[in-house]
């Protein structure tokens, strides 16, 4: 599914320099001051305190993630509501930003490629954000990931996955791998598709996506200098696994709903 062609990334030299001038100090404060406070909220003694029907640590992680997206110029808009309780959230995959976008709305443990562990800041955060790491191409690793997903879902916790299996260039939503839905079927929990749209009518998907041969660090710095733009997190109609025959159909239905929301 091809998306609307995107406008060129913001490359204005003076404007970009100005954005770095005020965003870099904000980012440093966010990392050096607010991040330790976020980690402090995870101390078991008070992490589980109820704050408006939500665990304290989860509320703080959501606020920190939303703040990070604000620093990068993303003006977040939510459509729909994330399900409460154990849910498998599935979203289209554009960039590393996707995880922070979702965490700004709902705490969930993600399935992510093992390479993310080595990414500055994000990798460190991912380990503390209940991430399940997967070695791509390894059937043994995938088996362990599915087992861990099943344990978490049966324990009433939520898991987030990107069924495309990798990021693309932002111009399409790739096929969804059906096997990753097995945990939801066996745990008998709902699947909620989530469409992540960057820019009006998804017009900035390719700006946010990794450019060819672009490293994480290069993408991180480039996005830090980009103009502010809207970003929508669309929680779509959930799929009750008992109502759909087979995980292949569940995967296709989730993808269809995300594509419809992208349009």
What is the straight-line distance between the termini? 10 Å
Overall pLDDT confidence: 88
Number of helices: 10
Relative helix content: 40-55%
Order of helices and strands: HHHEEHEHEHEHEHHEH
Structure classification: alpha/beta
**Number of spatially distinct domains:** 1
What characteristic shape results from the CA principal axes? Answer: globular
Strand tally, please?
Answer: 7
The CATH topology assignment is Glycerol-3-phosphate (1)-acyltransferase
Low-pLDDT runs: 4-10
Largest sheet entry: 7 strands, mixed
Radius of gyration: 18 Å
CATH architectural designation: 3-Layer(aba) Sandwich
Largest sheet, spatial ordering of strands:
1-7-6-2-5-3-4
Give the strand content. 5-15%
CATH class: Alpha Beta
Summarize the structure in short.
The protein is α/β, with parallel strands linked by helices. It is 43% helix and 14% strand.
Description:
- By secondary structure, the chain is of the alpha/beta class.
- It has one domain (13-262): Glycerol-3-phosphate (1)-acyltransferase.
- Helix content is 43%, strand content 14%.
- It has a 7-stranded mixed β-sheet with strand order 1-7-6-2-5-3-4, sandwiched between helices.
- Strand 3 (109-113), helix 5 and strand 4 form a beta-alpha-beta unit.
- Helix 1 packs antiparallel against helix 3 (56-71) and helix 3 packs across helix 4 (97-103).
